Amino acid sequence: MSTAKRDFERFVIWLHQPAVGAPSDVRRLANLALANFDALARTSRQHSQRSTFLVDLARRNLAQTPDGQPNIQEIAADGTWPWRRLRSMTIGPFRGFRTPEPFDLQKRVILFYGPNGSGKTSLCEGLEYGLLGSVEEAESKRIDGRAYLTNLHARRFEPPTLRATDHQNRDVAVAASADTFRFCFVEKNRIDAFSRIAARPPAQRTELIATLFGMDKFNDFVGHFNESIDQQLTLTAAKQIVLTGKRNALLADQATVNGEAQALSSLTNEEANLALTHSEGMTYAGLKALIGTAETPGRLQELEGILNAVPPAAIGLTRQGLLSAFEAPHLRLEEVVGITAQLQARSSQVSFKDLYTAVLALQAGEDDHCPACNTPLAEVKANPYEKASAGLIQLKELGELQERLATAQEKVATASRELRRQLGVLSAFLASYEEQETPVFHYLAGLAAEPAGDWWAAVYPTHQDGAAVTLDQILAIVDRAEAQDRTSALARLERQRNIAERDRLNEFRLAVQVQDLKRQQLVDSLAAAKARIAAFDVDNAPLIEEVAQEARDVARDEPIKSAYDRFLTLLKSYRNELPGTLMAGLNETAMNLYNEFNRNDLDADKLSALHLPLTAEQKIEISFRGNPQVRVDALRILSEGHIRCLGLAILLAKGQSIQSPLIVFDDAINAIDHDHRSGIRETIFESDHFADTQLIVTCHSNEFIKDIQQHLSAQRRDDCQVYLLRHHIGNYQPRVTGNIPSRNYVVKARSSKDALDNREALASSRQGLEMLAEKVWRWLASHGLGVINLQLAGVGAEPSLRNLSEALYKRLNDSATFNHPNKAVLVDTFGRILGIPAANLVWTYLNKGTHEEANRDDFDADLVESVVQTLEALDGLDLRPGR
């Protein structure tokens, strides 16, 4: 069973609690989702996959789904454990194990080490499957569980067989329970993910706690529900709106039919009133007859015919006008003749005027010489320029007379042109009547366009002999043109009256067209309304059926929408409350574990308070001992290494809070940097925090496994089992060695001594004494006695082991006021080992180590035994800091 499904089951159980108050349809929907969990979990929010799937499911099954709590495996209460320690596991065929492999798990501390690919992960996944019933990695990779767990070479898998020791020391089978054992696992991947999420922006840290506790799958499952399923539901009666609109239109049709008589009567009154606006007593039919049509022409067509006739043209000539035109050039010419006679009488003066004018014109270039003789003006008797100016003044009247002559000549020309124009009009008049052969036309046609001289003198003022026409003949033609103009004026006046009458009738024609169109539209609308009323039910039968189905769909989908909205709200609320559920009561324990992990940090950098979030929106906040009043965001302040320590501390605090009998470290130590591993090792394996907890560790670090064995107390050392896993040798089965001897130096020294191998006994004793001396020094430091005096052989030299032992021995003897049960034993043991002379071969080996040397004297067996016993005495003391 997947962890996400089990978490959803917990939600369903919570949802059915009376205190939650979930409506019946919400409980039904939750039960339906649980029954189809696997298919539902394969969908996502993209393209509304999940909402589409869930809506289809709800439409088919929601009404038939019971609203009571489904039969779900009981969730174990915290602290209620069916056994106290694992006893054994047989694994295979399973993942990397091709054949069954038994493991003895009766010890409190079980250590597995070996290179990558040697089967450690398969081993942990076997424990995970046996305890939880599923393997999270298969779910993460979306691989079918059976395919993921099958051994490639055996092509099958068998569930691992787990057995345990219960509280009555009986051998019992282990039943998988995700609820009971989910917090027994501390995995490297979770700690890594915790540190990575911590590096994200605050808005993206909502899944922080879910990831740490392995609930990220449930978190993802909840996150893939669409915010709304409205798009997949029928919630609006759209077709009903259409049908209602059509029925409303039908009501309008009925109103149209009901108002037929009144509408027709109103149109008839409008038509009668329109006719009366034309004339008193006029009827609408009479008005239409007056307007007429193409088939039955009326007054309007008659007026159009009259107005289409071309009226006589206006000539614009009169007898008096032409006589005046003849007289004007004649009179102007007489004036020219008179002025010319006056000028001729003063012709000599004209010559002098021209001379004076010419002299003055030369003045600009010859103003200092006489223009005639070139004599300087200073030498002449009379200045010619002054004489010319004076002469011109005297001849002023002559100039004015010349100007009058020019003006009179221009007037003659203007009058001549006007007379020629009028005669041209008269010529066109004759041509319009086709009288080109008459004498008058010939005379007129023979005139030049710009005739010169007194050309009119042949007919005016008196007829000259030999002229083709007379003035009277010309005037007779003008009289005819003048009579035509009078007729044309009368015709234009009548035409304006006809135009006014036509325009008025056209206005009535348009008004009549509007009235006729209104009547036709009314008739058409009445006919259409009557047809629609008659055909409505038939034409809209499909729509009426769709409206009925739509009503059923809305009635079906509205409860689904209501149930989903409430269901999603409760589901998110449950998910958001998970941090509070998981973190409740862990602050103090997690803080203490974190401080012990970081025991080598400055005291000011350790935590004085830890505030774990109780909602998804809250932060992990901490206060440091150096400034306990200030709370800060832990994920923003702490380094990545410290964040990893914090994640591990939270997981272990959770295990302690539920009194878990087992914690499995799946390569978790490798998620922690080297600076913190010693503190974590001491906290987990040497302190009393997990003294009653079975610890199973997989690790590829030989040194870490060695350090665990070295620092386990003598009282707990026998309760430890070490397994070595190595690569297969061609049979695709990991090589498992379970009788790995202890790597503890004191144990190895005793084993070598019992085998009469004094050299190896001393070699291990040297390493053991180094370890124990360092432990004693740290223990003294925890009691304020860490300052010692050491002698060094030179700059950069390391202190010898004897010098260190002597310094510790002296520090113990000099601290007269320090009283502790361990003090007497320490003084005695260091005294005994220092009682061996420094020059003795034993100390040579303890100080420098053993090397392969030929012809070496044998060691003193009693001294070697004394050394080993001394180390065993030291090893038996509780030298944990602060104890």
CATH superfamily heading of one domain: P-loop containing nucleotide triphosphate hydrolases
Radius of gyration: 65 Å
Largest sheet, order of strands side by side?
Answer: 6-10-11-3-12-13
**Mean of the pLDDT scores?**
82
**Helicity range:** 55-70%
Report the CATH architecture of one domain.
3-Layer(aba) Sandwich
Percentage of residues in strands = 5-15%
Major sheet size, sense and barrel closure: 6 strands, mixed
Description:
This protein has 33 helices and 13 strands. The protein is of the alpha/beta class and 883 residues long. The chain is elongated. Helices cover 57% and strands 7% of the residues. The strands form three sheets. Strands 6-10-11-3-12-13 form a six-stranded mixed β-sheet, with helices on both faces. Among the domains are: 3-75 and 549-576, no CATH class; 85-205 and 584-737, Rossmann fold (3-Layer(aba) Sandwich), CATH 3.40.50.300; 330-418, no CATH class; 745-875. The longest helix has 69 residues, at 471-539.
